[in-house]
Amino acid sequence: MSALERVAAWFTDPAHWAGSNGVPVRIAEHVTLSLVAIGIAVAIALPLGLAIGHGRRGERAAIAIAGLGRAVPSYALLILFVPFLGLGFSSALPALVLLAIPPLLVNTVAGITAVDADVVEAGRGMGMRGREVLRAIELPLALPAIVVGLRTSAVQVVATATLAALVAGGGLGRYIVDGFALQQSDRILAGAILVGLLAIGTERGLTLIERRVAGPGGRPVADLTVLGRASGGVAG
Questions:
Q1: What's the pLDDT at 27?
Q2: Are the beta carbons of 112 and 53 closer than 8 angstroms?
Q3: Domain 3-12+20-235 is in which class?
Q4: What pTM was estimated for this model as a whole?
Protein backbone atom coordinates (compact mmCIF):
# COMPACT_ATOMS: atom_id res chain seq x y z
CA MET A 1 0.00 0.00 0.00
CA SER A 2 1.41 3.39 -1.01
CA ALA A 3 1.76 6.33 1.38
CA LEU A 4 -1.16 8.09 -0.30
CA GLU A 5 -3.37 5.03 0.13
CA ARG A 6 -2.41 4.70 3.79
CA VAL A 7 -3.28 8.35 4.43
CA ALA A 8 -6.59 7.94 2.61
CA ALA A 9 -7.34 4.88 4.70
CA TRP A 10 -6.50 6.83 7.86
CA PHE A 11 -8.94 9.60 6.96
CA THR A 12 -11.72 7.16 6.09
CA ASP A 13 -11.36 5.21 9.33
CA PRO A 14 -14.35 6.15 11.54
CA ALA A 15 -12.24 5.58 14.65
CA HIS A 16 -10.20 8.68 13.81
CA TRP A 17 -13.28 10.90 13.83
CA ALA A 18 -14.65 10.01 17.24
CA GLY A 19 -13.54 10.27 20.84
CA SER A 20 -11.13 12.62 22.60
CA ASN A 21 -8.44 11.98 19.99
CA GLY A 22 -10.79 12.38 17.02
CA VAL A 23 -10.20 14.90 14.26
CA PRO A 24 -13.08 17.24 15.28
CA VAL A 25 -11.77 17.47 18.85
CA ARG A 26 -8.19 18.08 17.74
CA ILE A 27 -9.29 20.74 15.25
CA ALA A 28 -11.35 22.45 17.96
CA GLU A 29 -8.33 22.44 20.30
CA HIS A 30 -6.08 23.83 17.58
CA VAL A 31 -8.52 26.55 16.54
CA THR A 32 -9.27 27.54 20.15
CA LEU A 33 -5.60 27.88 21.03
CA SER A 34 -4.92 29.87 17.86
CA LEU A 35 -7.91 32.18 18.27
CA VAL A 36 -7.16 32.97 21.91
CA ALA A 37 -3.50 33.68 21.09
CA ILE A 38 -4.39 35.93 18.16
CA GLY A 39 -7.08 37.70 20.17
CA ILE A 40 -4.66 38.53 22.99
CA ALA A 41 -2.01 39.63 20.49
CA VAL A 42 -4.50 41.96 18.77
CA ALA A 43 -5.54 43.43 22.13
CA ILE A 44 -1.88 44.23 22.85
CA ALA A 45 -0.37 45.08 19.47
CA LEU A 46 -3.21 47.06 17.87
CA PRO A 47 -3.63 49.80 20.54
CA LEU A 48 0.13 50.02 20.98
CA GLY A 49 0.71 50.27 17.23
CA LEU A 50 -2.01 52.90 16.84
CA ALA A 51 -0.57 54.98 19.67
CA ILE A 52 2.98 54.77 18.32
CA GLY A 53 1.95 55.46 14.73
CA HIS A 54 -0.39 58.33 15.59
CA GLY A 55 2.09 59.96 17.95
CA ARG A 56 5.02 59.38 15.58
CA ARG A 57 7.13 58.37 18.55
CA GLY A 58 8.94 55.12 19.21
CA GLU A 59 8.60 53.62 15.71
CA ARG A 60 12.21 52.47 15.55
CA ALA A 61 12.10 50.98 19.04
CA ALA A 62 8.88 49.12 18.27
CA ILE A 63 10.25 47.70 15.03
CA ALA A 64 13.51 46.72 16.74
CA ILE A 65 11.70 44.92 19.56
CA ALA A 66 9.40 43.21 17.07
CA GLY A 67 12.41 42.09 15.05
CA LEU A 68 13.99 40.66 18.18
CA GLY A 69 10.79 38.77 18.92
CA ARG A 70 10.83 37.25 15.45
CA ALA A 71 14.41 36.06 15.96
CA VAL A 72 13.57 33.89 18.98
CA PRO A 73 12.68 30.32 17.91
CA SER A 74 9.10 29.33 18.70
CA TYR A 75 10.20 26.03 20.19
CA ALA A 76 12.50 27.88 22.60
CA LEU A 77 9.59 30.04 23.73
CA LEU A 78 7.45 26.97 24.35
CA ILE A 79 10.10 25.34 26.49
CA LEU A 80 10.81 28.62 28.30
CA PHE A 81 7.33 28.79 29.82
CA VAL A 82 7.07 25.14 30.89
CA PRO A 83 9.01 25.51 34.20
CA PHE A 84 6.79 28.42 35.22
CA LEU A 85 3.38 27.44 33.84
CA GLY A 86 3.65 23.67 33.55
CA LEU A 87 2.66 21.51 30.62
CA GLY A 88 -0.43 22.13 28.51
CA PHE A 89 -2.43 25.02 27.08
CA SER A 90 -1.04 27.53 29.59
CA SER A 91 2.54 27.13 28.33
CA ALA A 92 1.69 27.12 24.63
CA LEU A 93 -0.54 30.21 24.77
CA PRO A 94 2.00 32.89 25.82
CA ALA A 95 4.55 31.57 23.32
CA LEU A 96 2.02 31.92 20.50
CA VAL A 97 0.99 35.38 21.68
CA LEU A 98 4.61 36.55 21.53
CA LEU A 99 4.87 35.05 18.06
CA ALA A 100 1.74 36.88 16.84
CA ILE A 101 2.55 40.35 18.18
CA PRO A 102 5.48 41.43 15.90
CA PRO A 103 3.72 41.33 12.49
CA LEU A 104 0.64 43.03 13.93
CA LEU A 105 2.65 45.74 15.67
CA VAL A 106 4.95 46.48 12.73
CA ASN A 107 2.14 46.60 10.17
CA THR A 108 -0.05 48.77 12.37
CA VAL A 109 2.74 51.29 12.94
CA ALA A 110 3.72 51.21 9.26
CA GLY A 111 0.12 51.60 8.11
CA ILE A 112 -0.55 54.61 10.33
CA THR A 113 2.73 56.39 9.56
CA ALA A 114 2.22 55.83 5.82
CA VAL A 115 -0.99 57.89 5.78
CA ASP A 116 -0.50 61.03 3.69
CA ALA A 117 0.33 63.94 6.00
CA ASP A 118 -1.73 66.30 3.80
CA VAL A 119 -4.83 64.20 4.39
CA VAL A 120 -4.24 64.29 8.14
CA GLU A 121 -3.71 68.03 8.09
CA ALA A 122 -6.89 68.48 6.05
CA GLY A 123 -8.83 66.68 8.76
CA ARG A 124 -7.29 68.80 11.48
CA GLY A 125 -8.01 71.89 9.43
CA MET A 126 -11.70 70.93 9.50
CA GLY A 127 -11.66 70.91 13.28
CA MET A 128 -10.99 67.22 13.93
CA ARG A 129 -9.12 66.40 17.11
CA GLY A 130 -6.42 63.77 17.55
CA ARG A 131 -8.71 60.82 18.27
CA GLU A 132 -11.09 61.82 15.48
CA VAL A 133 -8.19 61.98 13.03
CA LEU A 134 -7.05 58.55 14.14
CA ARG A 135 -10.54 57.01 13.96
CA ALA A 136 -11.84 58.66 10.79
CA ILE A 137 -8.71 59.09 8.68
CA GLU A 138 -5.62 57.19 9.83
CA LEU A 139 -7.26 53.93 10.90
CA PRO A 140 -9.42 53.43 7.77
CA LEU A 141 -6.46 54.22 5.49
CA ALA A 142 -4.16 51.91 7.45
CA LEU A 143 -6.68 49.08 7.80
CA PRO A 144 -5.48 47.03 4.79
CA ALA A 145 -1.91 47.06 6.15
CA ILE A 146 -3.22 46.05 9.58
CA VAL A 147 -5.18 43.16 8.07
CA VAL A 148 -2.02 42.02 6.27
CA GLY A 149 -0.27 41.94 9.64
CA LEU A 150 -3.20 40.03 11.12
CA ARG A 151 -3.08 37.53 8.26
CA THR A 152 0.65 36.98 8.72
CA SER A 153 0.25 36.53 12.47
CA ALA A 154 -2.73 34.20 12.12
CA VAL A 155 -1.04 31.90 9.60
CA GLN A 156 2.12 31.76 11.71
CA VAL A 157 0.14 30.97 14.85
CA VAL A 158 -1.96 28.26 13.18
CA ALA A 159 1.16 26.61 11.80
CA THR A 160 3.22 26.97 14.98
CA ALA A 161 0.40 25.81 17.26
CA THR A 162 1.34 22.36 15.99
CA LEU A 163 4.30 22.52 18.39
CA ALA A 164 1.91 22.85 21.33
CA ALA A 165 1.60 19.07 21.29
CA LEU A 166 5.23 18.87 22.43
CA VAL A 167 4.23 20.45 25.76
CA ALA A 168 0.92 18.57 26.04
CA GLY A 169 -1.02 21.48 24.57
CA GLY A 170 -3.20 19.34 22.32
CA GLY A 171 -4.24 20.31 18.82
CA LEU A 172 -3.47 18.74 15.47
CA GLY A 173 0.20 18.46 16.33
CA ARG A 174 -0.78 15.54 18.55
CA TYR A 175 -1.10 13.38 15.43
CA ILE A 176 2.42 14.27 14.32
CA VAL A 177 3.97 13.72 17.74
CA ASP A 178 2.12 10.45 18.27
CA GLY A 179 2.93 9.37 14.72
CA PHE A 180 6.64 9.75 15.34
CA ALA A 181 6.39 7.95 18.69
CA LEU A 182 4.44 5.06 17.15
CA GLN A 183 6.33 5.17 13.85
CA GLN A 184 3.08 5.58 11.92
CA SER A 185 3.75 7.62 8.79
CA ASP A 186 0.07 7.78 7.87
CA ARG A 187 -0.73 9.52 11.16
CA ILE A 188 2.14 11.96 10.67
CA LEU A 189 1.04 12.83 7.13
CA ALA A 190 -2.60 13.13 8.15
CA GLY A 191 -1.66 15.61 10.88
CA ALA A 192 0.51 17.62 8.49
CA ILE A 193 -2.28 17.72 5.90
CA LEU A 194 -4.83 18.91 8.45
CA VAL A 195 -2.51 21.67 9.70
CA GLY A 196 -1.73 22.71 6.13
CA LEU A 197 -5.41 22.89 5.19
CA LEU A 198 -6.23 24.92 8.30
CA ALA A 199 -3.37 27.36 7.60
CA ILE A 200 -4.41 27.73 3.95
CA GLY A 201 -8.03 28.29 4.96
CA THR A 202 -6.94 30.96 7.45
CA GLU A 203 -4.82 32.72 4.84
CA ARG A 204 -7.53 32.68 2.20
CA GLY A 205 -10.21 33.85 4.61
CA LEU A 206 -8.17 36.84 5.78
CA THR A 207 -7.19 37.64 2.20
CA LEU A 208 -10.89 38.02 1.38
CA ILE A 209 -11.32 40.29 4.40
CA GLU A 210 -8.32 42.34 3.27
CA ARG A 211 -9.96 42.88 -0.13
CA ARG A 212 -13.25 43.90 1.47
CA VAL A 213 -11.70 46.57 3.71
CA ALA A 214 -10.07 48.25 0.71
CA GLY A 215 -12.06 50.82 -1.20
CA PRO A 216 -12.62 51.00 -4.98
CA GLY A 217 -9.52 50.12 -6.96
CA GLY A 218 -8.03 48.33 -3.97
CA ARG A 219 -7.36 51.57 -2.12
CA PRO A 220 -8.77 52.18 1.39
CA VAL A 221 -10.93 55.20 2.03
CA ALA A 222 -11.32 57.46 5.03
CA ASP A 223 -14.62 57.77 6.88
CA LEU A 224 -16.24 60.44 4.72
CA THR A 225 -19.29 60.61 7.00
CA VAL A 226 -17.18 61.77 9.91
CA LEU A 227 -15.24 64.11 7.66
CA GLY A 228 -18.50 65.61 6.46
CA ARG A 229 -19.72 66.16 10.01
CA ALA A 230 -16.45 67.79 10.93
CA SER A 231 -16.62 70.02 7.86
CA GLY A 232 -20.20 71.00 8.66
CA GLY A 233 -19.26 71.82 12.22
CA VAL A 234 -16.54 74.19 11.09
CA ALA A 235 -18.78 75.83 8.52
CA GLY A 236 -21.43 76.42 11.16
A1: 96
A2: yes
A3: mainly alpha
A4: 0.85
